[in-house]
Amino acid sequence: RYQVTVAAQSVLILVLGLPIIGLILLFIALVASSVVERQRLEIAILKSRGSSSGQVAALFLWQGLALSVLALVVGLPAGWLAAQAMGSTRQFLVFERATPLNMAITPPSIRYAVGAVLLALIVTVTPAIAAARLTVVAAKQRVGRPIFGPLWWSLGGDLLLLLCAGYAYYLLAGQQGFARLMPGEQVDPWQNPLLFIAPALFFLPGAQLYRHLLPLVLRLCEWVAAWLPSVALLLSLRNLARNAEHYGSLLALLLLTTGLGAYVTSFARTADENLVARTYYRIGANLVVTEGAGMINRGAVSLAQPGTSNTDESTATDSGLPSWAMLPVSEHLRIAGVRAAARVGRFPAQVRTPAAVIAGELYGIDREDFPKAAYFRRDFASLSLGALMNELALEPAGLLVTRQFVEQTRLQIGDTVQLTGLIAGASQPLQFKIVGVLDLFPTPYPAERQIFVANLEYLFTELGGPQPYFVWLAVDEGLSSSVLTTKLEGLGFQVLALDDVRVVIAAEQSRPERVGLFGFFTLGFVITTLLSILAVVTHAALMYQRRFIQIGILRAIGLSARQVATAQAGEHLLVIGLGVVGGAGLGLLCSNLFIPFMQVGYKAVDLVPPFVVVIAWPEVLLAVLVIVGASVLVIVSLSWLLARLPMFHAIKLGEALN
After folding, report:
1. Which residue stretches of 88-150 are H helix?
2. pLDDT by residue (tens digit) across 402-433?
3. What are phi and psi of 303, to 5 degrees?
4. Residue 70: how many CA atoms within 13 Å on its side-chain side?
């Protein structure tokens, strides 16, 4: 099972790693294309003066090789440091001090690094090879009028891929999860390719469709801005509407990096919350204490634990049932750090129906103390926990049943039901009235048995006295289980067992495969954020170098330095804002659609409780603020410097660059 889990998480890392690798290659292609675009005329002039296409390509190849060697020298130690940081990841973006990993730069890692560098080199040189085939006339035409495909062709491809993504979502929704257990066979849910293909099918065409429809929206905004007094706003929108394809690569990169970052962070937060939810559900509360109870039998007192109330007839007293002596549950509140304590009894129960005998388990609870100590999520029932406790308060013989039991027996709220088998040797049925319906209840799993919940005091009254029970506690974070055990024994309790949610969660978070998975999530989030910032800075610097003539002309026709700076900065900030906001929205939408299907398991209990998608709003907002803040700082600075450039300098420099 451990090996299968490691393999599944390795597949997840690989599948989520491929989009990150793709984004890095897209960033390299963006930078390389922008550099070649800036040097297109120089390349054409070299061709016109006798240089061959191979010589031009070799020039860029040697430049790329020099950068590749530098990347290897710097990248290998940086990767070692990144792996050390991943080893101290306990939660997403949460690092804790841990024993340093014994790592080394091995020959396989060097081979992978060389392969990555060669792949990046190919992406870098490819635009130069394409530019080397152009003549001076063709290069001038490309600068003035870039060649783009028809819009209808691009939109048709995007819509086709979106239809495929919709069909994949339909198939996933029809499967209702992946833990399909067959008799005598364990199914690996990670073998389902739709689990990974569907989000990719949604991301790529969604980003492309957004990018292709954006010029239409910008033209509408341009028409509205034409009626406004702001010249800078009109100039920004007009430049974007007419030259939107110049920003296509940057916009696509922002959409994908921000969207993937939002998706990865939300999935990581959801997985973190699901670990906590599954652990709390399995245990029931912050701490669950199993304490010995004194059984009074014919003048002698012996100790027993919860679950032994199902005694045989030889242990019964003269009244027919055993009697128990226990300290009041309120004694637990005397310990500093214990916020709440609730009694929870567990009894076997049976319901006879005309069709069959339904076996289950009856939980007896204190309606006042249970909500203070127990874990109960809002989706466990159609009514809130407080409303369910109120129903039990109004009816002492009230009974909460599962929705599955209602569907199986056709009983309804208000009907009476008889439960038997609570105590061995006592066949007298207990009468209950159904007052509420549950979907889930902490600790039991519906697939294993039926669940009933009733008032514990009513059970004790009907059974002739108290029976052994568990104690569910809500404690402060600083109160450890060992200290609690010592203090409980000092008060006279005999602690037989203690289940601490915090210990289980900490042990799960320390598992090596989980540390690696969440370390990868954290590293991926940091990389996508940095790529967005670098892309914005690089694109802005290269784009402004192409705007010198336009800036000089704008100054010459009478626009002030402030108007030119506002127009240039507004144009780029609008692109960045549309890319970041659109990407974040795309990632959040993808999270809500596909993260629920990522809850996989090898048995039914692995899917209880179900995933509740947790959108990582703090991380998403942090990434957006970092990207926008860095972009504003760079773009405003460049815009102001270029706007103050003298007109003749701008025109002469622009002619030299173009």
Report:
1. 107-131, 136-144
2. 998 888 888 889 999 988 877 655 567 889 99
3. -95, 140
4. 6
